[in-house]
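Q: What changes when iron/sulfur cluster is included in the input?
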Amino acid sequence: MNKIIVDSERCKGCCLCIDVCPKNCIEQSGAPNAAGYYPVQFVLDSDCIACALCGTVCPDVAITVLRDVDEDEAVAKAAEVKG
Ligand code: SF4
Ligand code: SF4
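A: The predicted holo structure follows.
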């Protein structure tokens, strides 16, 4: 599967990534981060094609794109990104 990981503490909630995603895989979350911004999150089971447009457009380098990973790899990478 393909998916993205968002570093929620880096994200400023500008929504540029939501606008650019061709598959509507990204949504804004309902809970603020430590800085008071509402970060985005991956829409579960959405059809990400790993095009990386979201990661490219993000001015805060908050998105990591994972291509062809299984669930265990995705969980491990998420832990790595979020420390
Ligand atoms: S990699 Fe492409 S399809 Fe996947 S969430 Fe980002 S913009 Fe959307
Ligand atoms: S483009 Fe980056 S900073 Fe803006 S909402 Fe998306 S992840 Fe957050």
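Observations recorded in class: Residues 11 and 39 are 5 Å apart (CA to CA).
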